[in-house]
Fold:
Amino acid sequence: MADGRTPSGAGEDGSTPPGPDPAGPAPAVRPFLVTAGRVAPSASGRTMPVETQVVATAEGLSGLDLLSFEQHDIVAACRRPQSIAEIAARLKLHLNVVRVLSEDLRVAGQLTVHVPDSGVTHDASVLRRVIDGLRAIPDSRGVLRDAD
Amino acid sequence: MTPTEPATRPGAAEAPVLRPPLPVKMVIAGGFGVGKTTAVGSISEIEPLTTEAAITEVAAGVDDLSHTPRKTTTTVAMDFGCITIDPTLKLYLFGTPGQERFGFMWDDIVEGAVGGLVIVDTRRLDDCYAAVDYFEHRQIPFAVAVNAFDGRVEHTVEEVRWALDVSERVPVVVFDARERGSVRDALLVVLEQALARTEG
Structure:
């Protein structure tokens, strides 16, 4: 792969040791070299929140071989929906680099980008579903929360 | 959810189009070493991930380690985890550095969050002022969670409330960042606040 990329072989899927990923060595390539100096998504006008979901399109996956470096890795990582924060963490890329490249890949039809609507996420019905879902999580000893 | 592009396209019909879940975001804030990453890790279904920000050097040599003897590294960016509520709904927990010098990062992380949990170490209350101020100023529903290190807290909830000067409407709870059930219940307190506000 490209020089200066942090090797990301270990720790991809559940093989990470306990605790947060170590930061690892600093990449030799300046982060914004790969975005040609751009620091924010161009067209959408709005910064993607860190939880924005990104999914590879069929075109993106079938054309994977034609992509290189970071673009390739991002599309490949998005076979299943990912947040841009997850992409940044797993590929060890700067968050804003992921934002810029995701926007490029969306425009090129290789990804779909789903910016959450805060009106929807703050809706009472959604909050209730989150509350009910959390209540169903047992504690460390497997004991469920008292119903109330 | 507002897809910026149609989720289905003609011609891509044979491939199953994966609809991403609706992401709901909560923020775990607090000073250095108060247990943010521990709390996220206690309840997240994935090991907490860390994203790198370009501010690593800012933190170098600044953190006061005197009261946190076992912590030797500074998390300069954010640790996060997630909980799948169901295939259409996913809760993300973002742990943010609470120190004032990271203030410029906050809007980037907090934008759109449904609520915040401010974790407090009673030995170093002043570390959380920036986070409390931020949530109050931005009118984001939040609760204060006093982390019971080794099962002990050195100040009562009333003393913490007085010291932080938070409004009566802001819940102050004692919790254990290492215990999944305890973290779950603290998050539920925040979500109930958020829900009460929508129904306000």
Q: What stands out?
A: Residues 22-199 of chain B form a domain with the Rossmann fold fold (CATH 3.40.50.300).
